Amino acid sequence: MATFVKNIVSRDRPKSGSFLASVAVVSIGEMGLGVAKLLTSHKYKVLTNIEGRSENTHKRAESASIELVKTDGQLASQADYFLSIVPPKDALSTAKRIATAMSAPDFARREAPLYYLDLNAVSPQHVREIAAILKPLADQVRFIDGGIIGGSPTPADPFDPTARWRVPSIPMSGPHKLSEAVPGGEALAKVLNSKHISEDVGTASGLKMCFASLTKGFQAIAIESFTTAHKLGVLSELQEQLKQTSSATAQMTASLTTMPPKAYRWVKEMKEIGDTFAIDGGFGEDERIFGAIAAVYNTVAKDTELGKEVTEKRKRGTTVEDVAACVAEGLEKRRKIEPETPAPVKAD
Hints:
eight-stranded mixed sheet, 348 residues, 45% helix, 2 domains, alpha/beta, N-(1-d-carboxylethyl)-l-norvaline Dehydrogenase, domain 2, 6-phosphogluconate dehydrogenase C-terminal domain-like protein, 13% strand
C-alpha cells in the first residue's frame, strides 16, 4: 500500500560484462515481471518457461528481456536460483513440476544445488508441504521460505532504470540462507532486499500472512463500506469525514484502485490467511473472519466488471468512486439473477 515506505536498493554492476547468476522466475505476472526487471537491471540472467501461457504473459516476458526455455527441466538445470512467484493456488503444483523435472531419468545431475525460493502468499502449513515435496531432492535443492511484502519493484526514476529501485521487503526463513548461497547469494539477497529472520520454514510466510491480513483485510472492509455508502448516496460525505478525522485511513482507501486486477488471486490468499490464524494462531471456527473476506474478493472477481480488469489495460475501477459503483452494479445484477430466499416460517 502507498502508505508503507519501500526500501530503495542502489545498483551495483559487476565490472565485467558477465552475469552475476542465472535466476528462473515463475511466473511472469505483475510481481514476477517487476522482480525480473529488477534482476536484469542488476546484471542477472533471468529465465522462465511460459509454454502455453497467454499472449499478455509473452508480452511481459519480452518487455523484460527474459530468456525463454521450453521445459521445466531446462529451467532446473540452467538456473542457479528458482523464484516461485505464482498465484497461491499454484504454489504447490509449481514445486511438484520442478520436483518431477529434476527426478526424470534424463535430468543431468547438477554440480551445485538449485536454490528454490518460495515467495508466494501461502500459509506456514502450506509452505511446509511445499518444502516436503522438495525434500527427497535435498542433495540437489536448497529450499528457502519467503514472503514479498509491498508492491512490485519499480525504478525510482522511470527514465533511468539502471540507477535506483524501489523494492518490497522479502523476509526469508529456513535452514538455508540466501546470503550464503553460491554463486552470488550475498549480492542477490541485497538486490531482493531480503532478510533472514528464522531457521524455521514457515516463519517468513507467517509474517507475510499477518501483514497481508491488515492491508488486504482492510481493503475488503473498505469495499463493503464504500459500496454501501455509494448506494446510500453518501460516499462523498464518507470520504470527507475520513479526510477530516482519519487522514491515514483516507490515504489507505486510495489503494482500492489497484485492487481489481488482483482480486481473483486474493481469494485464495485470504483463505491462506484464515488457515494461518486457525492453525498457527489457534483461533476457532466461529472466530475465523477471512473466509468472509475471501468471499468479498470472489464477488469482485466474478460478479463485477472489475473482475475483467488487466493491469496493462485498465478501464474500470481507476477511481475509488468507480470501484464502489462497479461493485454496487454487480451486486444488483446478482440480486436480480439469484432467486430470493423465502423468509423462515415462524412457529405458532
